[in-house]
Design brief:
With about 425 residues, the protein is mostly helical. About 65% of the residues lie in helices and about 0% in strands. The chain is globular, with a radius of gyration of 23 Å.
Length: about 425
């Protein structure tokens, strides 16, 4: 194992990162404990190399920000004296339970369920390790990872279409069984993954005059967008359409006139797709948008978040806390596992710190956009910027980053854009 003075080809960091990313993408499509544990174990070789000083240099500002917020998040597990924790908003029921049981109030942490909080925080370790490690890779190594992601996305897009056509081959016994879920337990996450892969196509371009690469990218884009349509995910189709607009702009860098013409053509193409009977089930789901339960979930989560602010209820406590605020008239046999809005869930579980954490990523993304705009960076960095943007947008209506696969993807996207590193030559950045 090499230190900072060894050649990059001999320090095994790229191999460890590639292994960790592969495991995350293959088994991290669900938040089930076993899968989260596998992704954590897959991150240990990368962590060991980082601790041994592989390619050691000062982390970029994005990694430092993420690590600082992660360290602060553990403060929820620090025991507090009874006079402090009992005075926090939302602790009245906990106090009553202890008094009825005849138990002493004692010193207790901020988190209502310390075990759930520790588990939730531990599950974030793998993507954070990846965030630091990818930032230490060379540009060509990062490009190889992106190529592997797009290749896997193409395979899962085809796999998802087959799932949709056959109504079987779903990897998980879930509500979305028979739908185009690919390697995920949720069709929305499959769609988000394919949308990210679509916008990554310009990042793989080797030169501006490679016509063959353009044809291959066009074919890959059609496969990926077909896979997105097969999911019938409304948010996924919206994000996929956004990616379908952004990708040719990054690839061709056209004039404003061509951009307007392209948008018009895309709109006409969308109208044509509406007329195809085979796609009727896809677009019919948009007719039920008014019946979506996400609005009710958001209102309930917001009410709970206000009751526990500014301390928060504790990481990993969403399910029992949400149940305590649910409308009895809307209860059924299924329980809500997530708020379907990660920003509101962060606010509920983390309170003021959750609010800061929820704002940190979008604000960092805006800062990166300003840096890229002023610096005239390559299309690769803009592609990665859009990967992060797609996942953060999706987080407003779902919980994509609570899966290791998509958490790894956004970690890679942010790590490769960290401008605190010494800038690479333009040719190197273009692969």
């Amino acid at each position: 194992m090499a230190g900072a003075d060894r050649p990059a080809s001999r320090d095994w960091l790229f191999t460890a990162v590639a292994f960790q990313l592969t495991v995350a993408l293959l088994v991290g499509g669900t938040a089930r404990p076993l899968h989260v544990l596998l992704c954590f174990f897959a991150s240990l070789p990368t962590l060991a190399l980082l601790l041994m000083g592989a390619r050691s240099h000062r982390p970029g500002w994005i990694a430092l920000l993420a690590l600082a917020l992660y360290a602060l998040a553990w403060l929820q597990l620090v025991p507090l004296p009874p006079v402090v924790w009992t005075a926090l908003p939302g602790r009245e029921l906990a106090v009553q339970v202890l008094e009825v049981a005849g138990l002493p109030l004692g010193w207790r942490p901020l988190a209502l369920d310390p075990g759930a909080a520790a588990t939730a925080l531990a599950s974030l370790a793998a993507p954070l390790i990846l965030l630091v490690a990818v930032g230490r890779l060379e540009s060509e190594e990062q490009r190889k990872l992106l190529l592997a992601i797009v290749a896997l996305a193409l395979v899962t897009a085809v796999f998802g279409v087959l799932q949709r056509l056959t109504g079987s081959m779903t990897l998980y016994d879930i509500e979305h069984a028979g739908a185009a879920t690919g390697l995920f337990a949720n069709r929305n996450h499959q769609a988000a993954f394919l949308a990210c892969a679509l916008v990554l196509l310009p990042a793989l371009r080797a030169s501006d005059d490679d016509r063959r690469a353009g044809l291959m990218a066009l074919a890959a884009g059609l496969v990926l967008f077909t896979g997105i349509l097969a999911t019938t995910s409304r948010a996924g189709i919206a994000l996929g359409t956004l990616a379908l607009i952004v990708t040719p702009l990054l690839w061709l860098r056209p004039s404003a006139r061509l951009v307007i013409g392209g948008v018009v053509l895309l709109g006409l193409g969308g109208l044509a797709l509406l007329q195809l009977p085979a796609l009727a089930p896809v677009f019919d789901r948009f007719a039920t948008l008014a019946q979506d339960q996400r609005v009710d979930m958001a209102e309930t989560t917001w009410a709970a978040a206000r009751s526990y602010f500014p301390a928060g209820s504790g990481w990993g406590s969403f399910v029992p806390v949400f149940m305590g605020f649910e409308d009895l008239d809307t209860l059924n046999q299924r329980y809500v596992v997530a708020a379907h809005n990660d920003y509101l869930q962060l606010l509920l579980e983390g309170g003021a710190l959750g609010l800061i954490a929820g704002l940190a990523a979008p604000l960092a993304l805006l800062a990166l956009a300003a840096m890229h705009w002023r610096g005239g960076v390559s299309p690769r960095l803009w592609s990665l910027w859009w990967v992060a943007a797609i996942l953060l947008l999706h987080s407003a209506v779902d919980y994509p980053l609570r899966t290791d696969a998509l958490a790894a993807l956004i970690a890679l996207a942010f790590a490769t854009q960290d401008n605190s590193r010494k800038p690479l030559p333009a040719k190197a950045m273009d692969g």
